[in-house]
Amino acid sequence: MTFNSWQYLLFLPAVVLVYFLLPHKVRWIWLLAASYFFYMMWNPWLAILILGTTVVAYGSALLMRKDEKHKKVYLIVTLVVCLGTLFTFKYLTFLLNSIIDLINLFPVHLEHPSLSIILPVGISFYTFQTLSYVIDVYRGDFEPERHFGYFALYVSYFPQLVAGPIEKPSNLLPQLREEHHPHIEDIAVGLRHILFGFLLKVAIADIAAIYVNRVFAHMGEAGTIEVLVAVALFCVQIYCDFNGYSEIAIGSARLMGVHLTRNFDDPYMSTSITEMFRRWHISLTRWFREYVYIPLGGNRKGAFRKALNTIIVFALCGLWHGANWTFLFWGIYAGVLMVLESIFLFPLIKKKKEQGIDMSAGVIGWIRRVFVWVLLIPSTIFFRSASIAQIGETFTRLFSGISANPNQILGFDVVSLLYVCLAAVLMEVAYRYVYRGKERSDSMNVGGTWTLSCVTKEAAITLVSIALIACAWIALITHQDVSTFAYFQF
After folding, report:
1. What is the spatial distance between Cα 179 and Cα 175, in angstroms, rounded to a whole number?
2. Is the model's pLDDT at 483 over the cut of 70?
3. Residue 443, pLDDT score
4. 173 lies in the same domain as 217
5. What does the pLDDT average to over 238-252?
6. Which pLDDT score, from 0 to 100, does residue 225 have?
7. CB of 82 within 8 A of CB of 130?
8. Is 444 helix (H, G, I), strand (E, B) or coil?
9. 442: Cβ–Cβ under 8 A, 6 or more apart, which residues?
10. Which of 2, 86, 173, 343 makes the best surface tag, with the fewest CB within 10 Å?
């Protein structure tokens, strides 16, 4: 069951309605059952994995408090079980194939094993969320949850189970225990986030994906213009796809009074790569900073160690996205860019600031934003390509000039392109309405009633969004192009 399916549009209201009809003391049972049902819709057997992870983490955390002397042993056991499970399902085949490819460089020929291991949806997300709980308990930052039901719900909470945000226990667990009541503000804000998420996913990401997939599937016929457009559209696609999921997750939880972590903060308006990653997939960036970068020494052990730690963290972040050399190259490339910025760009910005020059504002700021997009092109090619060979082919076609057959399959789909542009403009308007409109506070008069301009603005944005989503959905269903969320594969 995906968020952009008719099943979810029936599932979510039913869950919320029953949740508020039930007494508070038994609501966790309903939410836990709904969460496991939601997850088992992909494959019922996958519930065994998430339940096993939950049991190990729950028991280890309790033992850490009961037996402080051996708490490191319990931490190691949890790390081995959780990361071992993740490695087996996500990286084992990749490792074996890489070893065989290395051996085959010599006068030996070995066949790749056909293990046929299915990657459980969301395993990277709920594994990291579980580890954040265990590590926080180990550090003494969070008291272990003694109620197994609430902890199991923390691990499997359906709005953010399969693609985040990755929640810290200090944020989510207390909210799951808290008694919530139906509130018009929660419902209004939740629906606003859900509508915004569907706009991003259906009206922009899925439409853009049609052209992107077409170009990458026929890269040998593409020219410079087609590749540039495909790469730029993929930047839009992956952002709208993942942020769309995050928005629907945030909105779904908000309907029940739960506030999830904001996962994106307009990253493509950043003036540096470092700033962009600070505003992109915020919960994952925070996880790697708190549980990998800082334990490695962070920036406390000199410039060289800081640079090395940055590259290590982003290499691991790349592998987190997928068991493929392309993701590893993407991570290393991003890490190197951040190191270069820390060496050359940020000292310059500091110096100019002391001189009273703001390099993030005005023309300079926009030049820096454009330059960030230029730097994103190689990283996007790394991220989107299915293999090293396709990376090379894509860069080759990027500098090839005109396409070999521009009128057949890679010619511009003008209608789709204009549609994406229109939806993207609406996305910016909706974004500012959702996140920068101060929600109700700026749109109510002294008497506390909605102003006519506010009602008109909200109605216009809502109606246009619904119309674009409906048109896109009909077009996608007609052409059988409705897709799952891209980050489900991670």
Report:
1. 8
2. no
3. 41
4. no
5. 92
6. 82
7. yes
8. strand
9. none
10. 343
Which residue's entry shows tokens 């090839």? Answer: 400
The dihedral formed by the CA atoms of 25, 26, 27 and 33, expressed in degrees to the nearest 10: 150
pLDDT at 450: 43
Of the residues 152, 181, 210, the one at which a domain ends: 181
- Whole domain around residue 127: which residue ranges? 6-181
The angle formed by the CA atoms of residues 3, 123 and 86, to the nearest 5 degrees, is: 165
Residue 140, classed as helix, strand or coil, is coil
The answer to whether residue 330 sits within a structural domain is no
* 168 in the same domain as 32: yes
Q: What is the pLDDT of residue 97?
A: 84
Higher pLDDT, 482 or 362: 362
Could you tell me if residue 344 is inside a domain?
Answer: no
The closest of 134, 129, 124, 130 to 75, measured between CA atoms, is 134
Strand-pair partners of 450:
444
What's at 226, amino acid-wise? E
CA distance 32 to 353: 52
Record the pTM: 0.88
Active site residues: 321
Which tokens in the block code for residue 4? 């952009």
In terms of average pLDDT, the best of 317-321, 348-352, 455-459 is 317-321
Residues 409 and 191: their CA atoms lie apart, in Å, by: 39
